[in-house]
């Protein structure tokens, strides 16, 4: 999907709210340079400076009063982010000054930019495809170095290049099919079913490689919710504090200290985790503590990964078995691992008892006090969510929209192969290939609707 030339000029503050050393007001559109020239006083006219120049000047109001000193970047189409004339005014990072500068630009003819409109114009003007545009917001919102790396690769066009190559292969198949169907009298080489089937199988294998990294891509992009559960006083809050490297949760020897779910974010094994420290699970007459236990059940049900904590300095208690049963019943496909805490104290809990409780779940012995075993715990948690092989090195698909489109293309290609195998008319094969082509076009934007485009760019912040 591509639109025609945009005639208006948009403006927005491009830096985050709050005070800063520098703030940037950005404009894009055919009138950007002319509007900036009416607002900025400089020894050099902005309309006469070469593209990609940086000019010192003073931003003034309609009466000539100086609002701020600034550096003005002038960039002319088409070698800009949006493909249009772009002007950026680099001011001091005062929210008041930035608002005043933006108001002047609007007063001189610009209009306020909508969320993501700069990147949307880059897409509409062919500077980015849709997958690259989505990578922009993923890069801005990255929660881990790996997540930022994946987004940067997609912004570079790695995923788009793979998908475009697959579309070219399908187009080549379609062109040959249509020529044979439409011009049988021309004596064109007929379709070799075996060769076409092999080419379709290669395409399916390539899509499978992309889909294989979809779970890991989602994890690095969105992160993982981990619920820390156990009976009272096994050291859940101490373990949370140890993983965070700070005293976030209150720790006392009094059972039932944690009454509610406490959530904090941490980077474990390179993966962004949201850690939920929960109330100790036990039978209680305290209504407040009972509410906390019920919220623990809810946290388990909504978790991607559950960490059951046991006390290695005590024998296994009936409540430990109740916790394990609660986790099994809450289920919903949550992955589970077991941490035996307090291994700095004399060991009382028997290994055999731990293994009976854990079954297939991995077990790590740790000490929240000394830090022993914490690195191993992080590695095990990462392996649980990524799989034992860890994250694949191939391009990672991070968005559900891309995953759905690739899966649809795969189904259409398999249908085409089945149609050929059954010896059905080539027209039916052509229909399947058209479906695959359209599905892949959903990833890069060639066959996406305006409604989908609008929904994607609505997720962006204003100024990007």
How would you characterize the overall build of this protein?
The chain has 464 residues and is an alpha/beta fold. It folds into three domains: 10-128, Gyrase A, domain 2 (2-Layer Sandwich); 139-213 and 397-444, tRNA modification GTPase MnmE domain 2 (Four Helix Bundle (Hemerythrin (Met), subunit A), Up-down Bundle); 222-386, P-loop containing nucleotide triphosphate hydrolases (Rossmann fold, 3-Layer(aba) Sandwich). Helices cover 46% and strands 17% of the residues. The protein contains 16 helices and 13 strands. It has helices at 32-39, 95-107, 117-124, 130-140, 145-156, 158-182, 193-212, 214-222, 236-244, 287-301, 318-330, 351-358, 374-386, 400-421, 426-444, 450-457; strands at residues 10-13, 20-28, 40-41, 53-60, 66-75, 86-93, 111-112, 224-229, 262-268, 271-277, 305-311, 335-341, 363-365. The strands form two sheets. A seven-stranded mixed β-sheet has the order 3-4-5-6-2-1-7. A six-stranded mixed β-sheet has the order 9-10-8-11-12-13, sandwiched between helices. Helix 12 (351-358) links the parallel strand 12 and strand 13 (363-365). The two termini are 20 Å apart. Mean pLDDT is 85; it is low at 249-260.
């Amino acid at each position: 999907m591509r639109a025609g030339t945009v005639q208006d000029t948009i403006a927005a503050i491009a830096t985050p709210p709050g005070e800063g050393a520098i703030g940037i007001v950005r404009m894009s559109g055919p009138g950007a340079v002319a509007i900036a020239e009416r607002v900025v006083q400089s020894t050099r006219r902005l309309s006469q400076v070469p593209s990609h120049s940086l000019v010192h000047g003073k931003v003034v109001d309609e009466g000539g009063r100086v609002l701020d000193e600034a550096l003005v970047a002038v960039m002319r189409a088409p070698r800009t982010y949006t493909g249009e004339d772009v002007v950026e005014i680099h001011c001091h990072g005062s929210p008041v000054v930035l608002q005043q500068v933006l108001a002047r630009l609007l007063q001189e003819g610009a209009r306020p930019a909508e969320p993501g409109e700069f990147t949307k114009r880059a897409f509409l003007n062919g500077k980015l495809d849709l997958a690259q545009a989505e990578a922009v917001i993923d890069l801005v919102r990255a929660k881990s170095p790996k997540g930022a790396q994946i987004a940067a690769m997609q912004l570079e066009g790695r995923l788009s290049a793979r998908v475009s190559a697959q579309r070219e292969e399908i187009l080549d198949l379609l062109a040959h099919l249509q020529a044979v169907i439409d011009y049988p009298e021309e004596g064109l080489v007929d379709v070799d079913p075996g060769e076409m089937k092999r080419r379709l199988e290669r395409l399916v294998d390539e899509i499978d490689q992309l889909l294989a990294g979809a779970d890991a891509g989602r994890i690095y992009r969105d992160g993982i919710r981990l619920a820390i559960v156990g009976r009272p006083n096994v050291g859940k809050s101490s373990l949370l504090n140890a993983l965070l490297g700070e005293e976030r949760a209150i720790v006392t020897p009094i059972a039932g200290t944690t009454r509610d779910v406490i959530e904090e974010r941490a980077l474990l094994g390179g993966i962004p985790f949201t850690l939920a420290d929960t109330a100790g699970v036990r039978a209680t007459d305290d209504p407040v503590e009972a509410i906390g236990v019920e919220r623990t059940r809810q946290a388990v049900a909504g978790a991607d990964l559950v960490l059951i904590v046991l006390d290695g300095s005590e024998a296994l208690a009936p409540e430990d078995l109740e916790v394990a049963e609660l986790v099994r019943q809450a289920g919903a496909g949550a992955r589970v691992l077991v941490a035996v805490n307090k291994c700095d104290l004399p060991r009382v809990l028997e290994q055999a008892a731990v293994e009976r409780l854990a079954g297939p779940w991995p077990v790590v012995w740790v000490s929240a006090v000394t830090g022993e075993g914490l690195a191993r715990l992080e590695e095990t948690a990462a392996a649980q969510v990524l799989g034992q092989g860890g994250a694949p090195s191939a391009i990672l698909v991070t968005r559900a929209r891309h995953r759905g489109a690739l899966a649809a293309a795969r189904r259409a290609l398999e249908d085409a192969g089945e149609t050929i195998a059954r010896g059905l008319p080539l027209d039916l094969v052509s229909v399947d290939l058209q479906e695959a082509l359209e599905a892949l076009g959903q990833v890069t934007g060639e066959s996406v609707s305006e409604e989908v485009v609008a929904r994607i760019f609505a997720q962006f912040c204003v100024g990007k």
